[in-house]
Amino acid sequence: MANDTHNRASRRPQGRLIGYARVSTDEQATEAQEMELLSAGCDVIVREHGSGASRARPALSKLVREISTGDTLVVVRLDRLARSVSHLLEVIESLTAAGALFRSLRDPIDTSTPQGMFSLQVLGAVAQLERSLISERTKAGIRAAKAKGRLPGNPGIRERRPEALAKMTAAQKAAYGTRIQATTNQWLPTVKRMRPDHTWDDIARVLKQRGLDWTPERLRRAVRWMVSEGMADATLLRKSPPRLPEDRLMTLVAGIHSSNAKLTLREIARQLEQLHERTPRGGIKWSPSSVKNLIDRARRSGLLARESA
After folding, report:
1. pTM to 2 decimals?
2. Which entry of 10, 24, 51, 240 is annotated as an active-site residue?
3. Where is the active site (predicted)?
């Protein structure tokens, strides 16, 4: 038994244990949760006051965005993190993408163990069944309403009642925020590295090279929402300074290199060709030496850190 316990512990990545404690109102306190999280060995505890039914939680969103590989997010109970299976799975998916783990002290969910992953897969299957049942009930309700001569949908929306329209707008904004927060770890780091030195078009093209389908307009709108919610710095929205064509190429190459320092000069050249960027001399074929010249210029100008000897 002792050896089995030691083996399970040794499989856990050596990272921080970060506790997340949430209560619904300002009148409630997180002390009881904090004591339990500290007893479990949490190095840091993030506190938040907010309804469990709401997915717009700035502290949790920031934690998921900034968590490091090997860290583990720990909660006392699952309902402190999420009130629905779909929301729980979204958070865990974001943690997994960041190389982090999740653990609930009072529930059989620990993504560092096979048993915990099995429990998570069961929850995923339950969520899929729940979505299918809801869809079937909705379709049945629409068929019944049509059979009785009723129009489907919200009567308040059809009649353009102000209170119904206001509720619909609020729901749409909340849903938009949830979608944005679910993917920030995929695109926001690149935006932070490249803005405001690069245009939104440049950043959208770099993201597209990584398989992320963003238009400049959608990207700017998403960042504007993040700034309005206090989740990103307002400097990201500053107007890009006008640049000479060669200066723009230098900052673009620097941005590609900064986003993935493991790329070879030839791989960066291939990306520039796929982006249909012309060389400084107007050609369409990029050579590794041209890429190296731009990277060297970026280092001399301070745009990139100089390589150590």
Report:
1. 0.43
2. 24
3. 24 (o-(5'-phospho-dna)-serine intermediate)
